[in-house]
Design brief:
116 residues, YbaB/EbfC, YbaB-like_sf, YbaB/EbfC family nucleoid-associated protein, elongated, 15% strand, alpha+beta, Ybab, Chain: A
């Protein structure tokens, strides 16, 4: 159980630093979200509501969705990299020669001969 918890904490830590940002084309607002879809920052320009609050609301939702999709994609890449690194660490090093090989024995030994 401790190994699974430690592994989950490592994954959470790696994914926890992911941030994605999206900005409105008119630069009226920008939004930042983390890998879990939580808004971490919103910046509004003075002219953000110049076209009305309904337009600003639509822009915020649109940019939130874009930032969230980007954060999810980044988190997925981080998780895949974590798994690749885990496999590399867990893979045993391939021996240069079989364990049964005697480095001092340079002559091949025939173990079986077909006598038919």
């Amino acid at each position: 159980m401790d190994q699974r918890r430690a592994r989950a904490e490592k994954i959470d830590e790696a994914i926890g630093v992911v941030r994605a940002q999206a900005r409105a084309a008119d630069r009226s607002m920008a939004i930042e979200v983390d890998a879990y879809g939580q808004i971490t920052q919103i910046r509004l320009a003075p002219h953000a509501a110049a076209e009305g609050t309904q337009q600003l609301e639509r822009t915020i939702i649109e940019q939130y969705r874009a930032a969230r999709a980007d954060a999810e994609a980044q988190a997925h890449k981080v998780y895949e990299q974590f798994l690749r690194n885990e496999k590399k660490e867990a893979a045993p090093a391939a021996p240069s020669q079989p364990e049964w090989a005697d480095p001092d024995d340079v002559q091949p030994v025939r173990l079986w001969t077909d006598t038919r």
